[in-house]
Each structure stands twice: as C-alpha cells, then as structure tokens.
C-alpha cells in the first residue's frame, strides 16, 4: 500500500485537520541545496544525517538547507547572476522572498557543509574555507550573531547566484507540527573547495551516488524523507554534474496530502509514487 501511515496522535491530528477542527501550522520559507561533484562512473551528492535529537527529520539523510533568516532578505550585498526578480519568476515568489531563498541557500550550504558559493568578484569563487577564521564566521552565522550580509560585506564577497540552478519545490504535509515551504537548488562543488564534517545538526556526512543512496534506503541502511528520495531518483538519471546543471526544469510544487485509506490515515503524494524505502 502506498503512502506513510500516521499512527496514534498523529493520525488523530490528521483527522482533525481534514474535518476542519484544527488549523495546519503555516509553512516557513526554506532552501535546500544539492551539492554535486564528479565521481567514478556517475555524479555524487553530499548528504548529511540529522542527529536523532532533532525535532524535524531526526536520523534522516538530507541535503544541506534550512529556514530563511529574516535578515537574508537584506539588499545590501554584492550579487552576481540571476536577479531576485528572476528567481521569483522561477519559484513563483515575490522578489523579497526570492532574495531570501537564494541567500538562505548559500548561507545554509556554508553552515552545514563548509562550501561557499561566493567569490571576491562576479567571476571568481573562494578556493578554501577551512581556516580558523572561516570556522569562526561559520559558527557565528549558525548562532545568528552574524548576519549573512555582514559576513559577505566584511570579507568583500559577491554572492554567486549564477552557481545555483533551480530543481524542485516541496511543502511539508499539513499534519506536521513543523512545516517548511522549501525550494530545492542544485550546485557543483566549486574548484578547490571541499566539504567537511562540520557537526551542528548532523552527526554523519557522506558523498554518494544517487543510485547507491536509493539502494541503501531500499535495504533499510539509511532513512530518506520523500523529497530527498524523489530528488535522488531524478538525479540518478544523470552521469555528469554538467548534465544536471544544464537541465531545464519546470518547477512543480509537491505537497504530500493526508488521506484516509482503508480506514487508516496516511500521507500520500500521488498515484504513481510509493514511499516504500523512502
């Protein structure tokens, strides 16, 4: 049977939402970035495993990402590539929201992987972010004592929006108490940079081919949320990072629904997709 069962209190909450007795929690704007690198035989993606103590997606292997910080909409930054208005058209968002999404994508990627999609000019990208001074800034971004605009301005960096490509749009099901309106981006690992186990919300990181990640999920070795599972399935069709980046994507919004199936409350997406192994 397709879908994800909603047992106990979660199932009752789903019934209450469908009946109009409970209002769903609003979804917060968020951004996720699939970092890619060339591997042996196929492109590889960077995944991190969320700590079991996390309130959302505990233990799941995910791409770097997170919520938009209100300060991410700050206009006082150097910007290279498609404008916020252009990103807004792609993701069907207003210009301010789009600016925040792109800034959140770059900021969260740096916070959670050490990869920074920015450079000293519109044509360059920083080559190494592993020094102690970079680490201090990364931690300050995480605890929000440093805004992204302040970080870029202090270092004289230009945000490289042109290194990102749009990929997908997912909204957390209404039954969840923590909901996100997430735009997915893809980006290549910049030359000279390397990811590292940066801790924080993750307790393990891995570079893996999309097909291998799906195989591990099917065998129960790792846990993937439906958006991650589906994205990996899409990326498994490509051999080269350049092929992924060259893909023209029509951004379709997915929000798994809650429904009663044979007397049981479940989360379902569509008729041809099953969450088994996801």
Automatic annotation (TrEMBL):
Please indicate which superkingdom the organism of origin belongs to.
Bacteria
Could you say which cofactors this protein requires? Mn(2+); Mg(2+)
Domain Nudix hydrolase: residue ranges: 26-230
Is the keyword Hydrolase assigned to this protein?
A: yes
Per UniProt, which keywords does this protein have?
Hydrolase, Magnesium, Manganese, Metal-binding
User: This protein is called what?
Assistant: Nudix hydrolase domain-containing protein
Q: Which organism is it from?
A: Streptosporangium fragile
> Upper taxonomic classification of the species?
Bacteria, Bacillati, Actinomycetota, Actinomycetes, Streptosporangiales
């Amino acid at each position: 049977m397709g879908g994800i069962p909603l047992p106990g209190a979660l199932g009752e909450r789903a019934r209450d939402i469908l009946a109009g007795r409970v209002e769903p929690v609003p979804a917060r704007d968020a951004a996720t970035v699939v970092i890619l690198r060339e591997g042996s035989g196929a492109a590889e993606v960077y995944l991190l495993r969320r700590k079991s103590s996390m309130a959302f997606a505990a233990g799941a292997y995910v791409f770097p990402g997170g919520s938009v910080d209100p300060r991410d909409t700050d206009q006082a930054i150097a910007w290279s590539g498609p404008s916020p208005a252009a990103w807004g058209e792609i993701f069907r968002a207003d210009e301010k929201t789009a600016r925040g999404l792109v800034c959140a994508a770059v900021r969260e990627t740096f916070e959670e992987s050490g990869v920074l999609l920015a450079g000293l000019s519109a044509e360059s990208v920083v080559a190494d972010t592993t020094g102690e001074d970079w680490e201090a800034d990364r931690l300050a971004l995480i605890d929000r004592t440093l805004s992204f605009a302040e970080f870029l301005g202090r270092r004289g960096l230009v945000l490289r929006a042109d290194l990102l490509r749009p990929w997908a749009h997912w909204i957390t099901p209404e039954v969840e108490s923590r909901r996100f309106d997430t735009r997915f981006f893809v980006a290549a690992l910049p030359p000279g940079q390397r990811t590292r186990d940066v801790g924080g919300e993750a307790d393990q990181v891995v570079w893996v081919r999309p097909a291998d990640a799906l195989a591990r999920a099917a065998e129960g070795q790792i846990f993937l949320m439906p958006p991650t599972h589906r994205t990996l399935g899409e990326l498994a069709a490509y051999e080269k990072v350049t092929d992924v980046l060259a893909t023209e994507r029509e951004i379709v919004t997915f929000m798994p629904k809650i429904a009663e199936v044979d007397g049981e409350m479940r989360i379902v997406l569509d008729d041809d997709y099953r969450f088994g192994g996801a």
